[in-house]
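Teaching assistant here, posting this on the class forum so everyone can see the example we discussed in section. The complex has two components, and the goal was to see what a joint structure prediction looks like when all of them are supplied at once.
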Amino acid sequence: MSFEDDLTRSRWKRWLVNRFVVVPGSLVILALVWNAWIFTHNHGVIASRVIDASGAPVEGAEVKLWVFNFTTFAEQASTQTKADGTFEFTKNPSHNIQLSAKKAGVGRSPRIAVRLYFQSEDIVLKRPLQLSGAASD
Amino acid sequence: MVKCRRRWPIHLALLAVCFVMLVPFYWVLKTSISGENIFSYPPNIIPRDPHPFYYVDVWYAIPFARFFLNSVVVSALTIVANVVLNAMAGYSLTQTFPGKQIVLMLFLSCMMIPFQATIIPAYLITGKLGLLDSYLGLALPMFSTIICIFVFKASFDAVPRSLIDAARVDGLSEWRIIWKVMMPLAKSAVATNVILSFIWSWNNFMWPLIATRSQDMQTLPLGLARFISYQEDTTGALYAFCIMVLAPGILLFLLAQREFVQGLTTGATKG
């Protein structure tokens, strides 16, 4: 835009429509939208399901939630799966967690790491926890 | 067309220099999203399994938002003070007054003294003013820089003397001449002042380390040092932190680079 074109614009347009306002303004709007998203999706809900080696849902499996605690993962909570193999944790406080499941006579799953975009993010895991090998306890 | 063809070796050389200068930035960015060990051989040019979670780790490992806010407030204070005080000092140096040469010599000689040499008096003065552990105290030693005064002086020197005389004849005070006549003509000098004072304030480590006492007043460079001392296995997160600290400075420079370059070269060809 030439200097003459710039002068023909109204005063408020010259103040508002320039890169020094548009770029920081866009970033502020982006931050506000992101914070609004966080505010409406931070109930700490983690949901998924547990299946056995054949892919069938496992009822009554014990699922543990591990939360990163400065240097190591510490057990935060545990729950049991329902008849359809689903489970749900509420009030997860962290953004860096692990999940594991086991059931006597069916097997145990390896701990899977789950990284979240913010603390207490609500998430439904697409990949279920799969039990394999018999767990004695 | 012939000119363009003759210039290709220059462009090739410039591209090579750009590549050499940008590789470290690319490496930091790549490591921040991949967490790859910097000593791995052969190194991967393209990041493997990139993800943004190291940035999330940094955000929650330390009170990043608080440190960021502190850095923003201190930098904003520094920028405002630099533009106002340096413009006034620069304007005064364009005027004729007894002892001007001595003042110029003093300014030039003071540029040789490193900040570390004056840090004890600066601390004592800030302490006597009761400004330790405050935003104003953190910004105070950076309120005016001699280089930026000379940037304003060079820019004001380029303004025709007749314009200032005309403003005086119209009844403008010296104060209004600076803000109504000189400053609109010295936008590049303002941009240079803003960028330089922002970068110096944003990256300042030594003074905030000495002047802050509570964690709530620490700035981002102190946060970075604290972050390194917190955790050992932080390759990805450490580089993510570096990117988060660098990003505002790079953004500001990209926004105002045209004015910045103009500001630095104003008066360069003056005899």
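For the discussion questions: Chain B has two domains: 1-51, 62-265. The mean pLDDT of chain B is 89. Think about how each of these relates to the inputs above.
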